[in-house]
Amino acid sequence: MIEAQSVAIKYDGRTIIDNITLQVQEGEIVSIIGPNGSGKSTLLKSMSRLIPCERGCVRIGGQEIGTLSNKRVAQLLCMLCQSNQTPGDMTVEELVSYGRLPHKKWYERLDASDKEVVDWAIDRTGLATYRERLVGSLSGGEAQRAWIAMALAQRPKILMLDEPTTYLDIAHQLEVLELVRSINRELGITVVMVLHDLNQASAYSDRICVLRDGQVMMTGSPKDVLTPELIRDVYGVEAEITHHAVDDSMRIYINKKTEAASTRTELAPLH
């Protein structure tokens, strides 16, 4: 579906990611994890063509993304960054309507079929009662859902999310991730996202790609990737992992070592 092949990116002469290859299959949810500064967001931006590759290339459906028009790229994928800004007077409905622009010529206005898609995206994300609200007046979780609604109206094959739970409380984090998983399962949209929380990555991902110092350490299923050994090697902390036979889930605990003792704390509660 989408592939980064031997991608390298430099900023100011410094290598940020080096020789990274990542293949994402159609219909997958793939989460990119790793310590701060490991190149997670940079890799995601390179795969969405926001950042040019120093070496290597990115392909969508076998085509190099650099050979595609901006309009075609926008029809195939949508990228939502950590912080998304809107004009102060923009309503939810107006924001969601922008998702239809990649499917229109510059002089065309939205028609009845476009408005049906906008209505569907608003309803699908539970924002029907918010459609006339200003985006700036929404809570963090509501605003994130509005941006995801805009992405759904765009009808992309691939949705890329850079830390979609940043600045949200735990309840809204889970709300957003449940929404992402539901649109992946029900609509078949491929999802590539950057996450910090290891428990959330394990619960909401088909596969996980671990970065450290701009390189891929490991890619695979959550159970194969998230081991105490890898967490120790990548994050420099000791971890305890429990597996639940009933729902085949896993839960990760970090042991923060001090001179006196280790304190066992759960990364994040999951339901």
UniProtKB/TrEMBL annotation:
Pfam families, A to Z: ABC_tran (PF00005)
Lipid bilayer topology: Peripheral membrane protein
Keyword terms: ATP-binding, Cell membrane, Ion transport, Iron, Iron transport, Membrane, Nucleotide-binding, Transport
Domain ABC transporter span(s) in chain numbering: 2-238
Gene3D superfamilies: P-loop containing nucleotide triphosphate hydrolases
GO MF term list: ATP binding
Cellular localisation: Cell membrane
CDD domains (UniProt xref): ABC_Iron-Siderophores_B12_Hemin
Major localization listed first in the record, in broad terms: membrane
UniProt-recorded name of the protein: Iron complex transport system ATP-binding protein
